[in-house]
Amino acid sequence: MPLRAVYLLSAPGPRGRPRTYVGFTHDPWRRLRQHNAGRQKGGARRTSGRGPWRMELYVHGFPSDVAALRFEWAWQHPAASRRLQDAKPRPLPGEQPIAFALRMLPRLLWAPPWRRLPLRLRWLRPQPGPALHPAPPPHVVMEMDPGGPKPRPRKRPATTLATPPACTLCLEPCEGRTLRCPRPPCPARCHARCLAPHFLGAEPKELLPLGGTCPSCQQEVLWGELIGCGDGDDEWAELGDPTLGHWTDELLQGQRAEPE
To answer: Where does 19-147 show beta strands of DSSP type E?
Structure first.
């Protein structure tokens, strides 16, 4: 499954007020090059000829393009989004556009339908500045990557084990994609369909867990960390699992896209 990123750009603007732009992409660095190259090279009309643009951060971990595009639309139009009606979604007197965008970001992360998704917020500048207020939900994984784009590692050929490892919870073979504990040297490896109900023991009515206690090492882990440690290189581990897929569909079902 491709990376789904909703990103924030900034560029110098008139009278010391930096311009901002919010967009969606599967490849943040390619999209940034397009914005700086202009509309004729694939950039957006609003960013063409107004750079140089730099990417401040992006949010990723969305289970579908629909979920990410709704997040993008709400971040672009906070005053019109029904998700932010109680968050004072208009700029304060003298507030810079980038400060306003960063003030809206954590409010979106707390709003349904995104507040229980295993999202990750990646800062792309060396000094991110003041902390976000309010703080994002505690299960949102914060990442720092000021070094810019890195060459994509070559995919290693898949190896087939003679005896697949067993799920720590159900003890059935772990064939296909599984989730692994991110706390080395813990050996825990679980099916998503087994680990999610284990984490949701105290919240049986919820669709997706925020985190829980590893069944092997007994340390607290976030669901977003486990997704990042899943077997394979997918962002949403074990998407093909019928149970997890059912939860994702149910989470997004009935949420009508907001008008543009």
So the answer is: 19-25, 54-60, 120-123, 141-144
Cβ neighbours of residue 161 under 8 Å, at least 6 residues apart?
A: none
Beta bridge partners of 143: 122
Which residues are CB-contacts of 28 (< 8 A; sequence separation ≥ 6)?
Answer: 3, 5, 7, 55, 58, 124
pLDDT < 50 regions, the chain: 161, 231-260
Give ∠ CA 68-74-77 in degrees, rounded to 5: 140
Q: Global pTM?
A: 0.71
Q: Measured between alpha carbons, how far is 193 from 245 in angstroms, rounded to an integer?
A: 10
Both tokens of 177, joined, read 């994609």
**Torsions phi, psi for 121 (to 5 deg):** -110, 115
CB of 26 within 8 A of CB of 192? no
What is the structure's pLDDT at 241?
33
- Residue-level pLDDT at 248: 44
3-state helix, strand, coil in the chain (%, to 5): 30, 15, 55
Number of neighbouring beta carbons within 10 Å of residue 217: 15
- Cβ-in-10-Å burial (0-12, 13-18, 19+) of 60 comes to buried
Tokens of 239: 């998407």
- Distance, in Å, from the CA atom of 2 to the CA atom of 113, rounded to the nearest integer, reads 21
